[in-house]
Write a structure and sequence with these properties.
The chain has 201 residues and is of the alpha+beta class. The protein has a single domain (21-199), classed as 3-Layer(aba) Sandwich (Aminopeptidase), CATH 3.40.630.30. It has 6 helices and 8 strands; from the N terminus they run ββαααβββαβαββα. The protein has helices at 38-47, 49-53, 65-74, 125-140, 155-163, 192-199; strands at residues 21-25, 28-31, 84-90, 93-104, 109-116, 145-151, 167-178, 181-191. Strands 1-2-3-4-5-6-8-7 form an 8-stranded mixed sheet, with helices on both faces. Strand 1 and strand 2 (28-31) form a beta hairpin.
């Protein structure tokens, strides 16, 4: 008698759960937030508010530590988009965030989002965090396609997708409402076989 197949070969089998923490390299870790992280995370957001506001639409919704606590608590509740949120820690200090903004299990695809503090930008932190999370999604979660969307004029964010070897698949007109105007979005993607050929071959 043959062994039972797991997901995704058996769609009814339990899906593997995303890890709660992943080590990108020595001293660089991504981990799910706890309520005790709310103050440090809020202070980081608040210190970088003007910097982050250029491309991120949610700054007006984060005005207190309580807002961060509420967000962290909400992460423990089921959500239809399978949103996953991780803190990026360098030497134990929170320097940014990386998230699985959505997971489409039927089509085995997922979308990544990220930000890093202004003082930590340009060090390769986001690229390394993305690379580790994508390895996890492809190898451990058995997903097939990764997507990153970034505003057309957000060149640092686009450069991360390009360094990861993702291809530009198109431009979405007026993709996001950013406070008082629409922004066009660049859509990048890579499949698991392409990723493994590029990074593990």
């Amino acid at each position: 008698m043959s062994e039972p197949m797991g997901w995704p070969e058996d769609p009814d089998a339990p899906r593997p759960e995303p890890a709660k923490s992943l080590l990108a390299e020595e001293g660089l870790e991504i981990s799910v937030p706890m309520e005790g992280d709310a103050l440090e995370l809020f202070n980081l957001v608040d210190e970088n508010r003007a910097y982050l506001r250029e491309w991120l639409p949610w700054l007006d919704d984060v005005n207190s530590v309580d807002d961060e606590v509420a967000m962290i608590r909400s992460l423990s509740e089921p959500n239809p988009d399978n949103f996953r949120f991780y803190l990026i820690r360098q030497s134990g200090e929170i320097v940014g965030v990386i998230s699985m903004n959505w997971v489409d299990y039927q089509n085995r695809s997922f979308g990544l989002g990220y930000w890093v503090s202004q003082s930590s930008a340009g060090r390769g932190i986001i690229t390394k965090a993305c690379s580790r999370l994508m390895d996890h999604c492809f190898d451990d979660l058995k997903l097939h396609r990764s997507v990153i969307e970034a505003a057309v004029e957000n060149y640092p964010s686009r450069a991360i997708a390009e360094r990861l070897g993702m291809r530009l698949e198109g431009i979405s007109k007026d993709r996001e409402w950013l406070y008082d105007h629409f922004t066009d979005s660049s859509l990048y993607a890579i499949t698991a076989p392409e990723w493994k050929s590029r990074h593990q071959g």
